[in-house]
Design a protein that fits this description.
Layout (H helix, E strand, L loop, with lengths): L3 H16 L2 E6 L5 H10 L4 E6 L1 H10 L13 E6 L3 H14 L4 E7 L2 E4 H9 L3 H47 L1
Antiparallel strand pairs: 1-3, 1-4, 2-3, 4-5
Helix pairs in contact: 1-3, 4-5
Keywords: Ribonucleoprotein, Ribosomal protein, RNA-binding, rRNA-binding
Function: Forms part of the ribosomal stalk, playing a central role in the interaction of the ribosome with GTP-bound translation factors.
Protein name: Large ribosomal subunit protein uL10
């Protein structure tokens, strides 16, 4: 029979997995408490970084329907539960790992899809959601401007063609 405190921890972790859009597993061996505090701040407001017990977290992930992380639960493990923009949190982890090589990104999950450590680093290289949306809006606006120019050019080209035909007819008609 499971102890009530362990059952409560599994239930809390399961809820965190379900409420997160992404979760990133890291190994934090060799980091000080002060460094972990700095890491938590660098992840932003939409992520929670928690040092976890492997067995309980594995059970919680499986209960949440995430079975792709089972191989990553070895050694000292901490999980970054991301509820907001996963790119921002991935950048925070990548940048912190550059300065502190003791932080090792093991892998993670994004919207139910397993991610390797390399895929998380690629995710960190993306621009933020707001920047990508503004670029998309700019591209749509540019295409609309091009379409408007084309639609405007058609009637004016037609008018010039009709005027040229009239002038040619008048020239031919006046010569006879």
């Amino acid at each position: 029979m499971a102890r009530p405190d362990k059952a409560a921890a599994v239930a809390e972790l399961t809820e965190q997995f379900r409420n997160s859009s992404a979760a990133v597993l890291t190994e934090y061996r060799g980091l000080t408490v002060a460094q972990l505090k700095t890491l938590r701040r660098s992840l932003g407001e939409n992520a929670q970084y928690a040092v976890v017990k492997n067995t309980l977290t594995k059970i919680a992930a499986n209960e949440a329907g995430i079975t792709t992380l089972d191989d990553l639960f070895n050694g000292p493990t901490a999980v970054a539960f991301v509820t907001g923009d996963p790119v921002e949190s991935a950048k925070g982890l990548r940048d912190f790992a550059k300065d502190n090589p003791n932080l090792v990104i093991k892998g993670g999950v994004l919207d139910g899809k397993a991610l390797s450590a390399d895929e998380i680093k690629k995710l960190a290289d993306l621009e933020s959601r707001e920047v990508l949306l503004s670029k998309l809006a700019g591209a749509f606006k540019a295409k609309q401007s091009q379409a408007a120019s084309v639609f405007q050019a058609l009637p004016s080209k037609l008018v010039r063609t009709v005027d040229a035909l009239r002038a040619k007819q008048a020239e031919q008609g006046g010569a006879e």
